[in-house]
Amino acid sequence: MKLNRTLALAAGATLILLGTQTLQAQELALGVKVTGSVPKGDLGDNTFLDSKLGYGAGVHLAIGVPGGALVPRIDYTVYDNHGNGGAKATMLQAGVDYDYYFNPGYTGPYLGVGAGYGSTKFQQDTPRLDDRPNNIYYAGQVGYMFTRNLGAEARYTYAEYKPNFNGGTPSYSSPTLNASLIFQF
């Protein structure tokens, strides 16, 4: 329910920002990405997960606005720790970024900031743990679009999770470092 509300808020913010622009043909690019991600902080310190590479995928819609692009996005990431009773964290995040391009034409280097809402499923086989807390995340990224269709991005995302494990509620700070290969159409 909260995730649906966040998606509605993200869509509303996108429409408001687009509505403030002069009416012109907006440049749109649908994109997909494959991601490698490393959990840091409490989440990646071997208490629940480890700092091993996770994997993920995402979709986004880059909407051209003056100076850059407004980018609603959905990302899915999985982390496994087979050495900790089969611990696993599965993240689904939806948010909006603003990417500032240094060159016209949405190619070359860019910097971005973003925020959104996510839901993370924490699971462990031994002892049996299972919970899905929701959270807000913040992000910053730097990227390079080699062409209008191919790019790479390094992203830092910060969130805090409080899963309920058998009555206990640990708090995990979770900065993650992500590297993505981007394909746009």
Ordered list of secondary-structure elements with their pairings:
Blueprint: H1 2-19, E1 28-39, E2 54-65, E3 68-81, E4 87-101, E5 108-124, E6 129-131, E7 134-145, E8 150-161, E9 172-184
Antiparallel strand pairs: 1-2, 1-9, 2-3, 3-4, 4-5, 5-6, 5-7, 7-8, 8-9
Q: Strand arrangement, largest sheet? A: 1-2-3-4-5-7-8-9
How many angstroms does the end-to-end distance come to?
A: 31 Å
- CATH fold field value: Porin
How does CATH name the architecture?
Answer: Beta Barrel
Helical segment tally?
1
H/E element sequence: HEEEEEEEEE
Overall mean confidence score, pLDDT: 85
How many DSSP E strands? 9
Number of domains: 1
| The level-1 CATH class | Mainly Beta
Main sheet: strands, sense, barrel: 8 strands, antiparallel, barrel
What spatial form do the alpha-carbon principal axes imply? elongated
Radius of gyration: 17 Å
Q: Approximately what portion of the residues adopt beta-strand conformation?
A: over 45%
Percent helix:
under 10%
Uncertain residue ranges: 18-25
